[in-house]
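[Discussion] Sanity-checking designs against the backbone

I'm trying to build intuition for which residues belong where. Below is a structure token string of 363 positions. I'd appreciate it if someone posts a full sequence so I can compare it with mine line by line.
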């Protein structure tokens, strides 16, 4: 039995909690008018940089460090076609770029720009044998080198893998970050959604042309709907008085909501040849007049994957190391998510110093 005193205590505790939460909500509401000002101060990239090459809509940035260049081989970062690339230079203390620049690497990044309907017919061949090849050639010419280091993130990693297989002679070391290679696995909702039994990619692309940013954004949100649509807003509300939390949140949300469209033909080829037919692991992926043969990759390869990645599960990345001919290959699995692998606090302190050392040892 519950005594009357216990019941009275419960009521009083509830009343106290209600009053405290009411006052907390009043303080949170008072912080709302300042959010817009804070959001306006969010910078899209923090490391100083300069544009050194342009072609169509893309730009190649060279990052400017405070110290001298210590390594002879330049590093070129290839990002995905889906989002903006400044996630790799998000803010101070959360920058992949800064790790390499501070270590003395001459660091470059390909910014694809924002495609419009005039780009809908761009193919994987245009990106791999066209844009990426031209950018790498330019960087090598600028630096007086014959080979460059390449770091590819997500879809950019898949493109970088294809590029290396087709142009191994100009790539010295390959670093892959959360990169999809083997799509035979049924892990991950995107793999299920893209199944040809449920998704007619030809009809889709023929109808929309470029794949709209809004479509991609909603797909990413639905990977974890409860976390993205309920837990995250509640967490933000509860921490709205925490300046550091708010600053991190605004930087991340600015990037997450800065989606861009994907050229229709590239999307068609990735959906059909990777997600539906898994041709890359079979050495049958067509890129223009060429076929990608992963066995032609012989350079050192570092394959980084996040154990909690809901977008590119480790099962999609790990098989690569057994499909290439590289004798110097390594896998690092890090406890993080798809984005946390790049900008997470633990990744910045533990993972990226190790990656920088790995690359420096192979300069």
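Best answer:
Here's mine. Compare freely.
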């Amino acid at each position: 039995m519950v005594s009357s005193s216990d019941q009275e205590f419960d009521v009083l505790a509830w009343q106290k909690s209600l009053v405290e939460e009411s006052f907390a909500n009043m303080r949170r509401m008072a912080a709302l008018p300042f959010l817009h000002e804070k959001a306006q101060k969010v910078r899209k990239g923090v490391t100083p940089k300069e544009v050194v090459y342009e072609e169509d809509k893309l730009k190649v940035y060279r990052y400017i460090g405070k110290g001298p260049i210590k390594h002879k081989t330049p590093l070129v970062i290839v990002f995905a076609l889906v989002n903006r690339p400044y996630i790799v230079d998000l803010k101070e203390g959360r920058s992949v770029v800064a790790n390499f620049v501070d270590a003395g690497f001459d660091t470059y990044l390909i910014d694809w720009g924002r495609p419009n309907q005039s780009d809908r017919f761009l193919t994987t061949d245009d990106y791999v044998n066209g844009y990426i090849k031209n950018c790498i050639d330019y960087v090598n010419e600028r630096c007086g080198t014959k080979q460059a280091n390449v770091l590819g993130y997500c879809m950019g990693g898949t493109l970088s893998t294809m590029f290396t297989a087709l142009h191994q002679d100009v790539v010295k070391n390959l670093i892959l970050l959360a990169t999809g290679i083997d799509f035979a696995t049924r892990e991950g909702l995107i793999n299920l959604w893209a199944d040809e039994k449920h998704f007619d990619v030809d009809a889709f692309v023929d109808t929309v042309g470029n794949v709209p940013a809004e479509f991609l954004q909603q797909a990413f949100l639905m990977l974890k709907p409860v976390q993205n649509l309920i837990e995250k807003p509640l967490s933000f509300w509860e921490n709205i008085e925490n300046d550091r939390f708010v600053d991190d949140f605004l930087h991340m949300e600015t990037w997450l909501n800065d989606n861009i469209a994907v050229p229709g033909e590239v999307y068609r080829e990735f959906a059909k040849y990777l997600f539906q037919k898994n041709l890359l692991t079979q050495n049958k992926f067509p890129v223009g007049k060429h076929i990608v043969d992963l066995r032609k990759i012989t350079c050192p390869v570092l394959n980084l994957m996040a154990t909690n990645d809901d977008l590119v599960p480790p099962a999609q990345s790990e098989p690569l190391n057994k499909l290439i001919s590289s004798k110097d290959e390594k896998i690092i699995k890090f406890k993080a998510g798809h984005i946390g692998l790049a900008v997470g606090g633990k990744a910045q302190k533990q993972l990226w110093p190790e990656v920088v050392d790995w690359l420096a040892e192979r300069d």
